[in-house]
Amino acid sequence: MIKDFIATDEPVDGLQRLVARFGGHAYDPHRHETYAVGHTLSGAQAFRYRGSDRISVQDECMVIHPDEVHDGHAGVPEGFSYRMLYIEPWLICRALGRDSLLPFVPGVVERDAELAALIDDAFTDFPNPMEPLQADAFISDVAAHPARRSDDARPQRAAALPVEKVAAARAFLAEELDRQVTSSDLERITGLDRFELARAFRRLVGTSPHRYLVGRRLAHARSCMAAGEGLAETAAASGFADQSHMTRHFRARFGITPGRFAALAGARQA
Q1: What is the pLDDT of residue 87?
Q2: Residue of 213, 41, 34 whose CA lies nearest to 126
Q3: Could you give the CA distance from residue 152 to residue 155 in angstroms, rounded to a whole number?
Q4: Arithmetic mean of pLDDT over the chain
Q5: Per the count of CB atoms within 10 A, which of 65, 114, 128, 135 is most buried?
Q6: How buried is 151 (Cβ within 10 angstroms: 0-12 exposed, 13-18 middle, 19+ buried)?
Q7: CA distance linking residue 113 with residue 102, whole number of Å
Q8: Distance between CA atoms of 122 and 255, rounded to whole angstroms?
Q9: Which PROSITE patterns match (predicted)?
Q10: So what's the pLDDT on residue 146?
Q11: Residues 46-63 pLDDT 10s
C-alpha cells in the first residue's frame, strides 16, 4: 500500500509548491490566503467548495480562489495524488498589469492540458528552489488562466488603489511574523487609516492583513516542522502564543493538525 504523504518546498517570493498523496480523508474544511492552482496526477480528488461537491480526476486542473473554504478526500478507492502551487494574489495582479478585482474562476475544475503542463514544468527540479526567471515566467503564464476563465470578463478599474503602500504593509507583516503586530504599526508604515488599508489590502491581496500575518506564521511553522523541529519550539519561533494556539490556526488553515503534518512530512522522507 502506498503511504499518504505531503512534501512542500520553501515559499519564495509569493510562490510555494506542494505534492501529496492520500488514500482516504485528506483535509478538514479550511482556506488559504493564496490562489491554489493544482493538477490531479492520479485517482480522483473530491472536495466541497462554495456549497457544491466537486471532483477533480486524473489530468484535470483546479483553481481555488483565495479565502474560499474547501475540504478534501479521495473520490475513488485507490485514492488520489496531486501537485499544487500556492500563489500570492498580488503576483496575479502584477502579472496581469492591472489594478483591478482579483479574477474569480467559477468553474473550479477543468481539463486544461496547457495549465497542467505549466504546473508539471514548475515541479521539474522539486524540491530544489525554482530559478528566479523560471518562477517569473511561470507566474506570467499561469496568471492568464484565471483571467481568461474569470466571471469578470471586463476588468473593473480600481481608481487610485495604494499598491505600493499595501506592498509595504505586506512586507512588514512577513518580516515581523514572530511578534504581535498592531493596526497602529501598519498605519505608521503605510500612512493609511486602518480601515482604508483593510479595504485596499483585501482588494489587492485577497484577504485581511491579520489573516495574511497568520498565513506567514503558518508557512514558517510548516517549514520548521518539515525540517524536524518540535511542535512547541515551532510555535514559539513562529509567533504563536503556544502550541495549542498554533494547532487551532494550523488545522483551520490546512485541514490537518500540526502533528499529522509532521508525521506525513516524515513519511515522505523515510
Answers
A1: 94
A2: 41
A3: 6
A4: 89
A5: 65
A6: exposed
A7: 23
A8: 25
A9: HTH_ARAC_FAMILY_2
A10: 77
A11: 999 999 999 999 999 999
The model's pLDDT over 107-142, given as tens digits with 9 standing for 90+, comes to 899 999 999 999 999 998 898 888 887 888 888 888
Q: Residues 150-168: pLDDT tens digits?
A: 766 554 454 578 999 999 9
Instruction: For domain 161-270, give its CATH number from 2.30.30.50, 1.10.10.60, 1.10.340.30, 3.40.50.720.
Output: 1.10.10.60
Q: Which residue, 172, 163, 167, 149, is CA-closest to 64?
A: 149
* Domain residue extents for the chain: 5-149, 161-270
* Residue entry with cell 491581496: 205
The full 3-state SS of the chain, as one line of letters, equals CCCCEEEECCCECCEEEEEEEECCEEEEEECCCCEEEEEEEEEEEEEEECCEEEEEECCCEEEECCCCCEEEEECCCCCEEEEEEEECHHHHHHHHCCCECCCCCCCCEECCHHHHHHHHHHCCCCCCCCCHHHHHHHHHHHHHHHHHHCCCCCCCECCCCCHHHHHHHHHHHHHCCCCCCCHHHHHHHHCCCHHHHHHHHHHHHCCCHHHHHHHHHHHHHHHHHHCCCCHHHHHHHCCCCCHHHHHHHHHHHHCCCHHHHHHHHHHHHC
**Quick one: average pLDDT of 239-266?**
93
* CATH superfamily label, 5-149: Jelly Rolls (2.60.120.10)
Q: What residues have CB less than 8 Å from 137, skipping those under 6 apart?
A: none
Cα(226)–Cα(265) distance, rounded to whole angstroms? 6
* Residues present in the chain in total: 270
For the entire predicted model, the pTM comes to 0.81
Question: Dihedral of CA 103/105/111/116: which sign?
Answer: positive
